[in-house]
Amino acid sequence: MKNLFVLLICMLFFVGPTSAQAPIEINLWPEGLPNSNGIDKTKPFDDATQNFRPSIKVFLPEASKATGRAVVCCPGGGYSHLATDHEGYAWAPFFNERGIALIVLKYRMPHAVTEVPISDAREALRIVRANAQKWNIDPKKVGIMGSSAGGHLATTISTHSDAETAPNFQILFYPVVTFDYKYTHKGSRHNLIGENASADMVDLYSNEKQVNATTPPAILLLSDDDKTVPSMNSVNYYAALKANGIKASMHIYPSGGHGWGIRDNFKYHNEMLNDLSAWLETIK
After folding, report:
1. What is the pTM of this model?
2. How far is Cα 116 from Cα 107, in angstroms, rounded to an integer?
3. Closest Cα partner for 257 from 231, 276, 220?
4. Nearest-angstrom CA–CA distance, 154 and 118
5. Strand partners, 218
6. 249: Cβ–Cβ under 8 A, 6 or more apart, which residues?
7. What CA–CA distance (Å, rounded) separates 186 from 249?
8. What's the CA gap between 129 and 4, in Å, rounded?
9. What's the pLDDT score for residue 205?
10. Which of 3, 162, 218, 240 could tie 211 with a disulfide, CB 3.0–4.6 Å?
11. pLDDT, tens digit, for every residue of 145-188?
């Protein structure tokens, strides 16, 4: 009996209470897609072919821990695929432990139909705010997070929306921001706006040029030696935010390259989590 008691105590110590509810999956467009990338209405949805059903997976913290904050997460992948694990689902414990809901978006690949992923991201934000009361979320504390091309989608939503529909804050990991060939990630540019896009389209989706006084505050986290998405994407976006009086923080780590997400083999993993945690405390 004594041994059984000790075993139960050990199990409680090592396992501990669960920190979140079971995730909820929601189809973004149950009444039918509002637009098409050319394959999403003609072929079966299939993650293996990157023909994603537009949807969200909602990870809610325990109600007793909920702070009212929520983050809609846009994984990266060059607008050709999605890194939904280390840039998406694997972030859920980090946010839920801090009382923050994480909503991971599976957005459709554009195939040069620019409005396709943008409409999916906007609908994700709308659904989160529509369910705010049920999910213990404050509709005025809904941020957006993006990595790489997902960072471009996040900055697009942040700079191409009015004050009522924009996210309330931005979390950006090594984001694509500009479509200027000098600094852009060419694959992301070509996949979103096409290889023969007009100069006006290039400027419109070079999001450092679209920042204004209503753009939400941001944190940018990246590596100095990123050869895939040059650091000047973030530097110029940060400068534009500051020029418009927007609160912003930027952390450039000495090394690490591109695409580390929440993987713990990133040399500055712990520093990055601490930097992000400290910044999140400013979002009340």
Report:
1. 0.92
2. 8
3. 231
4. 9
5. 170, 248
6. 218, 219, 220, 275, 279
7. 26
8. 47
9. 98
10. 240
11. 999 999 999 999 999 998 778 999 999 999 999 999 999 999 99
The answer to whether 161 touches 183, Cβ cutoff 8 Å, is no
Task: Measure the CA–CA gap between 228 and 258, rounded to whole angstroms.
Answer: 6
Angle CA 154–156–159, to nearest 5: 110
Residues belonging to the chain? 284
- Contact partners, residue 279, CB within 8 Å, separation at least 6: 219, 249
Q: Are 56 and 103 in contact (CB under 8 A)?
A: yes
Q: What is the DSSP letter of 40?
A: T
CA angle 40, 42, 31 (to 5 degrees): 60
Q: List, in order, residues 6 or more apart from 46 with CB less than 8 Å away.
A: none
Tokens representing residue 24 in the block: 């909820």
Locus of tokens 């450039």: 252
Give the tokens for residue 77.
Answer: 């992948």
Between CA 168 and CA 215 the distance in angstroms is 9
